[in-house]
Specification:
- The chain has 12 helices and 10 strands.
- The protein has 363 residues and is of the alpha/beta class.
- Strands 3-2-1-4-5 form a 5-stranded mixed sheet, with helices on both faces.
- Helix 2 packs parallel to helix 3 and helix 7 crosses helix 9.
- The longest helix is centred in the C-terminal third of the chain and has 27 residues.
- The N and C termini lie far apart (41 Å).
- The structure holds 5'-O-[(R)-(carboxyoxy)(hydroxy)phosphoryl]adenosine and zinc ion.
């Protein structure tokens, strides 16, 4: 049998990502972004993103293959993001994934984008522990999860955001204070010159009577808006950025560390675009060390959307001998995270895989 080699394709938002992973090792990847085309609209325009994916797809596959020094004929499986994300953007990647799988005569895995964010950590830090708490903080999602074997087990939601995602809050607050899209990196940069304690923004849902694993960032965004409205004179942008960033980092760190204690987990896995934030990384690391927890965070470059994360997840599925998807598999722009595959994990015999954790309720 040939060595497994997974081609991963990611097009859920504005990044066209392609990666090649074999046995937990990233051989090569390539990334094109249409971010600049969306900046003047202050957010991603789905049709513009889809057209950019269409143009970038084949060149990115070619570049990733060249960097990995392999041919399409060497690929043994294709993994592609089938949701959640922007529908027109997802359709381009899924169609491309099907075409490459058909052309190469190899199986196709239609995977969940957020499971990819978690899987990418394996590339630099090796296999995940049997069970850990995962904090997923991206532009569209914020969740605390109990994660076992990513390829086989059901992902258990401990809590999610009831309104805005953490990344969404970064993007909206950036807009409020005149920083460009995407707001996360812009706030991260501006905050370096600011005082994180200049303004006391709220830490949402961290009171004793609040649901401990639930997030809410819309009120924090409104608190920043009110502060900006009331302020006379030039805005102290670095101080607002630093104080807002501190409120997000503190809220995430408190809840994640408490969830680990509650679950008896000794490892926190923090992933998604907001995990690229320097203060979020720094504060969560500090709190984890103080609590005796091991923190796993992917390298900054692999926190935001990319193709390596989808290839890494496909590689886990192949090695776990999970049955692939049929070529008529559909995208689901709103898919909730329940596991690696968008349409549920199956064994080779076609049976649904059992949950192995046995202890936690599914939200
Ligand atoms: O995971 P991701 O690349 O895409 C989604 O799946 O949503 O996350 C994108 C989000 C955006 O909201 C962006 O502003 C945020 O991640 N982000 C950051 C940083 N880099 C990206 N937020 C805070 N600090 C950063 N350095
Ligand atoms: Zn993402």
């Amino acid at each position: 049998m040939s060595t497994p080699l997974v081609l991963g394709i990611e097009t859920s938002c504005d990044e066209t990502g392609v990666g090649l992973v074999s046995g937990g090792v990233l051989l090569g990847d390539a990334l094109a972004s249409s971010m600049d085309e969306h900046a003047r609209f202050g957010g991603v325009v789905p049709e513009v993103a889809a057209r950019a994916h269409l143009e970038a797809m084949a060149p990115m596959v070619r570049t990733a293959l060249q960097r990995a020094e392999v041919d399409l004929a060497d690929v043994t499986a294709v993994a592609v993001t089938a949701g959640p994300g922007l529908s027109p953007a997802l359709q381009v990647g899924l169609a491309a994934g099907k075409a490459y799988a058909l052309a190469a005569g190899v199986p196709l895995y239609a995977v969940h984008h957020l499971a990819g964010h978690a899987a990418v950590d394996v590339l630099d830090h090796g296999p995940l522990p049997p069970r850990c708490v995962a904090l997923i903080v991206s532009g569209g999602h914020t969740s605390l999860l109990s994660v076992g074997d990513l390829a086989r087990d059901e992902v258990v939601h401990l809590g999610d955001t009831v309104d805005d995602a953490a990344g969404e809050a970064f993007d909206k607050v950036a807009r409020l204070i005149g920083l460009p899209y995407p707001g996360g990196p812009a706030i991260d940069r501006a905050a370096r010159e600011g005082d994180a304690h200049a303004i006391a923004f709220p830490r949402p849902l961290t009171g004793p009577a609040d649901p401990p694993w639930t997030f809410s960032f819309s009120g924090l965004k409104t608190a920043v808006a009110r502060w900006v409205e009331r302020h006379d004179g030039p805005l102290p942008v670095p101080d607002i950025a630093a104080s807002f960033q501190e409120a997000v980092a503190d809220t995430l760190a408190r809840k994640a560390v408490a969830a680990c204690a509650d679950q008896g987990a000794d490892t926190l896995l923090m992933v998604g675009g907001v995990a690229a934030n320097s203060r979020v990384r720094g504060l969560v690391e500090e709190r984890c060390t103080a609590a005796g927890l091991t923190l796993r965070v992917p390298p900054t470059r692999l926190c935001t959307d990319n193709g390596a994360m989808i290839a890494a997840l496909g590689d886990l599925l192949v090695r776990a001998d999970v049955e692939p998807d049929p070529l008529d598999v559909a995208a689901d722009p709103r898919a909730r995270l329940t596991g690696a595959l968008l349409h549920g994990a199956r064994t080779r015999s076609g049976a649904e895989l059992d949950r192995t954790d046995g202890s936690l309720p599914v939200a």
